[in-house]
Amino acid sequence: MPGYDTRIHTLRLGDRDYRIRSLSDLQQYDDPDGHAERAGISSAQWSLFGQVWPAGQALARVMATHEVAGKRILELGCGLGLASLVLSHRGADVVASDVHPLAETFLAYNAGLNDLPAVTYRTLSWQAPGPGLDRFDMIIASDVLYERDQAGVIAGLVDALARPACEVVLVDPGRGHCGAFARHLKAQGFAVDERRLALRDDETPPYRGRLLLCRRAAHGTA
Question: DSSP characters for 15-35?
């Protein structure tokens, strides 16, 4: 038995219900071999990957209808992999990534819960992504701008991983760093469209959530 407790949620994402295994609460911690500690994940942060967060659900709902045909897609900080599972259901070419040592295990379990094929997974450090990286037509993420310097870190990762023509889709719960991230991407040649987004059914305008749709055409194209 693992040293943590889990639960199963049923979530409506797009046109179907998904069964998702998560950690039962934020009090979970289990790192007997020190893998998380070596990855820079503290005991206070350890359980964050395994929660069903509103921003992650919102990104998954966006991916349920977004144009993805023919695109190679990367999800940053996938956690439980909600958006990647929705994309897999739609037949998209998606790679889920995270640094948490259990993210791949939970992603594989959740794919099986929903009768989906295994989603390609990659351990990816935002600060040191390493050499020989793939390039992607679309990069997606939710709630990754949780500290001020993350705007520059994630923008740098986009610069390393984006193909010349690329789209970045990011959902933020209103932490206040979207403006800095948008400025970084504009400097890379992206056009940025920022929209307000409801993260809960009971929210009323003005919404705190933000949806950033960032697009860059290949040089010399419209």
Answer: TEEEEEEEESSTT----TT-H
Instruction: State which H helix or E strand residue 55 sits in.
Output: helix 54-63
Measure the CA–CA gap between 65 and 182, rounded to whole angstroms.
23
| 8 Å CB contact between 85 and 116 | yes
Sign for the CA dihedral angle at 179, 139, 81, 47 comes to negative
- Give a yes or no: residue 27 inside a domain: yes
Question: Would 1 be classed as within a structural domain?
Answer: no
Structure tokens at 79: 């956690």
Look-up of token digits 């900080």: 77
For residue range 152-201, list pLDDT tens digits in order: 999 999 999 999 999 999 999 999 999 999 999 999 999 999 999 999 88
What is the helix (H) or strand (E) element at residue 142, kind and residue range? Answer: strand 136-142
Separation between Cα atoms, residue 116 and residue 123, nearest integer Å = 21
* pLDDT tens-digit series, residues 21-55: 999 999 999 999 999 999 999 999 999 999 999 99
Number of structural domains the chain divides into: 1
200 in any annotated domain: yes
Select from 88, 107, 94 the least CA-distant residue to 49: 107
